[in-house]
Amino acid sequence: MKINLSTSLHLDHGRMPVALQPAVPLPMQSFVPLGLLSLKASSDATGIGADINVFELNTMIEQGKIPNDDAFYSHIVKSLTHNDPDMIGFMTDADSLHHTVLLAQAVKAVAPDTLICAGGPAVSPLRGTFLDRFDAFDYLIRGEGEETFSELIETLSSDLSPANILGLTWRQGDNIRENPERRPIENLDDLPIPAFDAYEDIANAPLYLDVGRGCPFSCDFCATAPFWNRRFRMKSPNRVLREIRLLRERFGRNHVNFSHDIFTCDHKWVYAFCACLRDESLGMTWTCSTRTDVINDDLLSLMADAGCEEIYYGIETGSPTMQRRMGKKLDLKRSLDIVRMTADLGIRPVTGFIIGHPEETPESFSDTISAYFEFLKAGKHRSHIFTLCPFQEAPIYAKYKHAMNRRAEYFDLPLTETPTAAAEALLKTHPDIFSSAYRYDTPHVDEGLVDASEEISPKLAAFPKLWGRLLPHYSAAMDFYRRWMEWIATQNSRAHHNSRFKHQGTLNEMLHFLNSEVERLKIQDSVVADLIRYEQKKIEAESSLRDPIHIPEPSVSIDESSTVMRHCDYMAVPFQRKMSDVLSDPEATGENETTTCWVVFAKTRDKSLDILEVGEKGVRILGLVGKPWGVRSLITEIRSSTQDNEDASHPCDLNIIRDLISNRLLMEISGP
Ligand code: B12
Ligand code: SF4
Questions:
Q1: Which of 37, 393, 396, 450 is the most exposed place for a label (fewest CB within 10 A)?
Q2: Mean pLDDT score of the chain, rounded to an integer?
Q3: Strand, coil or helix: what is 427?
Q4: Residue 618 to residues 74, 553, 598: CA-CA distances in angstroms?
């Protein structure tokens, strides 16, 4: 039996412009499809001999194999059916389920005999309703997939009836059959190691490792805990180590994200695992997710020693009342301490907040906005705001499913007109299936405020140094947030009044808004104004500077007989304060500084931007050396143009040139 397994489509929201036109190339988020690789390994281990191939659609799109035109779905279908498979299995995620349905329908249109199976978090709770609504699908696997999928293949290979396969929903003639539940796998070590080599880009894509599954808590908005039946399980430390060794030795990976919603639930396990990791000295760095109330300082230092680089903490709300209502029940003060401690140990804390709970009040909303900035400051790294997405499996869904009355301002794939129309029609016709495209009503909070939270994090997280200095000018962080919401809504109603995206703006629009706020607050001479200008220039430099054609090795052996030349594009911007101080110390005002400080933006080695501070002479040198200059005459020229009476061979001037060379802004084109 030939089976092709396909990932869901994942948009890279960080790279998505607010353009409403089709984007070429599509900004996709590739990833190592762990679930599918585990399904393949399990099925291979049964010895049935099915030929299973894994397709990571996002990578294929990124590599330009799938053009973004009106035949978008057909292009994908062509790839998925090129080897005449007997079955295609689709992994599903809530925000791309409509695309998966369109793909399945397109497969059936060209290859009606191909069986289609779906699994994963988006379809699992929909059960028979999904098969009933979309007859392109023949099988739906609920929850954990390995055993059910292997049994389905065994059954299909032997022409038996699937009636006895636990966890399967299937089509029998005109009827839809719902087989009894399957119990979660008791010991995850029994699972074979995922078939990593079935995904050819394994060496490059973001990599998650299945260290365990299931969370015993019951937050009312959460779909992942019920998906795994709230059964907390870990693979043994030795088993995880085996997988890490394999990834390191065979695929050269030295960084991995541990996929578990609550990595530190079992402290004994974490102690044992970190001890093993340290003893093995594998040099592997890793990230994980957990709750702030199941971790402590001891565990954190142990994890830091064992290579932990980043921890995601779901904080969800800054309101103690909402903490209870959402069932998260975190102590916010302790959470802030944990985040601080994490950062102090050199682990990057990432915190997440949720906005748009139907029971949200103006006070809880305001508390969450304040907490967002407070945690961002304490963690010194990244913080996200998510708009509450109605997932069918989450406990809250049953209570509020009748109160999902507006479309989310969430970005979908920027496809061309025909596929967009087909996808939109599906979302409109089946709001109960594609619930995550909608948002819950918030009777006590202006919906515009909720909608403005959609996709806002990249715009706030882009300026981490700014908020601690700007927000004290407002009565509360909420005041700032409301002003932004009103400003961007007015802009959008003028510029694109027909758009569904009434509260979405670009990074540049956020900067425009910030400048208008600086004027309104009359703080044009403040450090805030300079920080905004600095960020604006950075964005400008990012998009306008060309990459270097030639990347030289910096040479520091130059003397006055050498010849040098600038080798890259640059942009020099004057500031009246020392920006490096302002950026490194949140309290610094840089106001004692009297001389002009020049910030130079340049692309010196690859696509990333280099930023460095230089003095007046450094900027003059950069301006001159667009063509080759002898160092001696360069020093003389600089000395005369800056009225500098020092000896022309003064080492300071030579050192400035050497500094520019070691920072790769200049290169030596002939030796002494
Ligand atoms: C790692 C991860 C990611 C990674 C990798 C994606 C991936 N799915 O592997 C990245 C960062 C890319 C990602 C992105 C997103 N994710 Co995510 N992610 C996870 C996470 C933490 C682990 C997934 C995992 O590897 N699990 C381990 C493997 C073994 O399990 P699995 O993939 O679920 O596969 C098993 C079963 O689902 C089933 N199965 C899966 N596919 C198939 C296919 C077939 C044919 C069959 C038979 C069975 C089957 O069998 C597998 C083996 O048991 C889960 C939460 C969780 N703990 O599961 C959330 C989760 C899957 N993500 C979720 C969401 C919402 C997203 C985003 C949409 C978030 C967002 N709004 O940006 C994005 C989508 C990308 C985008 N920007 O468009 C939700 C999905 C909810 C839902 N109802 O759909 C989850 C459940 C978390 C949550 N919020 O509740 N995610
Ligand atoms: S949000 Fe986190 S802690 Fe709460 S139930 Fe879900 S996985 Fe568990």
A1: 393
A2: 92
A3: helix
A4: 56, 20, 9
Q: What is the DSSP string of 254-304?
A: -EEEEE-TTTTSSHHHHHHHHHHHHHHT---EEEEEE-GGG--HHHHHHHH
Please state, in angstroms and rounded to a whole number, the distance separating the CA atoms of residues 403 and 632: 76
Compute the Cα dihedral for 72, 77, 83, 88 and give only its sign: positive
Q: Are 425 and 383 in contact (CB under 8 A)?
A: no
The region that residue 329 occupies, defined by phi over 0 for left and psi between -120 and 50 for alpha, beta otherwise, is: left
Ligand 2 atom closest to 328 (CA): 4
Distance between CA 463 and CA 510 in Å, rounded? 10
What distance in angstroms lies between residue 133's CA and the mean position of ligand 1's atoms?
A: 23
- 94 CA from centroid of ligand 1 (Å): 9
Residue 648 has pLDDT above 60, yes or no: no
Angular region, 47: left φ>0, alpha ψ -120 to 50, beta rest: left
Identify whether the C-beta of residue 143 lies closer than 8 Å to the C-beta of residue 126.
Answer: no
Determine which of 185-199, 227-241, 485-499, 579-593 has the lowest per-residue pLDDT on average: 579-593
Cα 261 to middle of ligand 2, angstroms: 7
State how far the Cα of 61 lies from the Cα of 26, in Å rounded to an integer.
Answer: 7
pLDDT winner (highest mean) among 20-29, 126-135, 611-620: 126-135
Q: How much distance in Å is there from the Cα of 219 to the middle of ligand 2? A: 6
Q: Which two tokens stand for residue 599?
A: 């910030």
Name, in order, each residue with C-beta under 8 angstroms of 579's C-beta and a sequence gap of 6 or more: 530, 534, 590, 597, 599, 613
CB atoms closer than 10 angstroms to residue 55: 20
Pocket of ligand 1 (CB under 6 A): 5, 10-11, 13, 29, 31, 34-35, 38-39, 89-91, 93-95, 117-122, 141, 144-146, 149, 208, 210, 223-224, 259, 261, 391
Pull the structure tokens for residue 372: 């967002």
Q: State CA 198 to chain mean position distance.
A: 24
- Calculate mean pLDDT across residues 135-141: 98
Alpha carbon nearest to ligand 2 atom 4, residue: 219
Q: Which atom of ligand 1 is nearest to the CA of 33?
A: 9
pLDDT digits (tens, 9 = 90+) for 92-124: 999 999 999 999 999 999 999 999 999 999 999
Is 401 or 21 the better-scoring residue by pLDDT? 401
Q: 371 falls in which pLDDT band (50, 70, 90)?
A: very high
Q: Do residues 86 and 3 make contact, with C-beta atoms less than 8 angstroms apart?
A: yes
Ligand 2 proximal residues by C-beta, below 6 Å: 215, 217-219, 222, 224-225, 261-262, 291, 314
Distance 223 CA to ligand 2 centre (A): 8
The secondary structure element, H or E, covering residue 612 is strand 610-614
C-alpha span between 243 and 173 (Å, rounded)? 43
Which has the closest alpha carbon to 604: 556, 669, 661?
661
